[in-house]
Amino acid sequence: MDSAGERAALAARGAVAVDTESALLAGDDGQTVVVRAVVDNPAHPLRGLGMPRRGVRALRELRRTADVINAWSAATGERELLLAGPRSFCAGVERAIGTVEQALRRFGAPVYVRRQIVHNRHVVSDLERRGAVFVEEAGEVPEGGLLVLAAHGVAPAVRTQAAERHLRVIDATCPLVAKVHQEVRRYADRGSTVVLIGHADHEEVIGTTGEAPDHVLVVSNPAEAETIHVPDPGNVAYAMQTTLAVDEAAETVDVLRRRFPALDGPRKDDICYATTNRQQAVRTIAAESELVIVLGSQNSSNSRRLAEVAEAAGTPAILIDDAGELPLDRLAGVTRIGITAGASAPPALVDNLISCLSGLGPVTVTESGTGTEDVRFALPKEVTQP
């Protein structure tokens, strides 16, 4: 590119730089990366007083890229990707998201949602772009406004506050969570102490506890179950958060049964089918993988449990929101990667991760597991009936 006029014309059309040499260095495997520092442009020619200073700065910037290039190079290679099945959205999540989408279509923006409709930042950001407004409490919604309750459920006090503000409430609580609320009310009505197995700071547990706060005691693991004190050991029942690690929850129940032989509980454990299926699927791919990648947000209980299950199976695991968070150094030397997504993570995140990994070398994608889910939950009547 010898002509200053030619360069000026290209710059006017939006060109940032012209590279006429790097193609000679590129191979035919699609894995070539070229990093160049440009020290001249139409306004600052190569032969000029500022060239030495710009050259020194360019060299300094190039050196800063060395670690990144080395990490990228170490992460390249041919890989097999094992996809867990089932993965991604469950019926409760689909219902919750569909409730907000239908409310926006039917009533228009803004539609207020208490807390995150599901624990995934991609879902929340998408709904925000479409007119949903996420608030912490019902008191933040203008009087008479439309409020959607998130999938995790709420304590009765939240409904009371909404009624006091004359809000139109649409309940997107997962039906499986609502079932746990009903169990706790039933046990409490007969005077039982209810041991709620779950994480005390999780929204689902907070909402469930609110059904009978004077009767509910929360334990998160077998060790806590060993030390819990109840007023009447002969009148104890238990319920569970729906997104727990299956094995640890079962151990906690075993401790409670040993300590309280008259322990009552649901006919079927409260951990939802989707949580159980995804944990079994990730356990399967972990046995064949060198690394398991779980797509999901850090505040997603079911996603965190998937990473824990993989680790418990002896395979390193990482939980990331999307492919952009994947650390390259974790891929060095890894040729078999298991991939799954939490029940609140959009399926598109898996496709995007596969695409990004294919940019580091050829990939073979294998579906692992035969688990299928045909559960569907109807949307609330407030968004479906005239």
Summarize the entry for a quick read:
This protein is α/β, with parallel strands linked by helices. The chain has helices at 4-12, 51-64, 66-75, 91-107, 121-129, 156-164, 175-189, 203-209, 222-227, 246-259, 273-286, 301-312, 348-358, 381-384; strands at residues 79-84, 111-114, 132-135, 146-149, 168-171, 193-197, 216-219, 236-240, 291-295, 317-320, 336-341, 363-368.
What would you note in describing this structure?
With 386 residues, the protein is of the alpha/beta class. The chain has 4 domains: 30-62, no CATH class; 79-88 and 273-368, 4-hydroxy-3-methylbut-2-enyl diphosphate reductase, catalytic domain (Cobalt-precorrin-4 Transmethylase, domain 1, 3-Layer(aba) Sandwich), CATH 3.40.1010.20; 91-174, 3-Layer(aba) Sandwich (Rossmann fold); 176-259, Cobalt-precorrin-4 Transmethylase, domain 1 (3-Layer(aba) Sandwich). It is 39% helix and 15% strand. The protein is built from 14 helices and 12 strands. The strands form 3 sheets. The chain has a 5-stranded parallel beta sheet, sandwiched between helices. Helix 7 (175-189) runs parallel beside helix 8. It starts with a helix and ends with a helix. The model has no long low-confidence stretch (mean pLDDT 93).
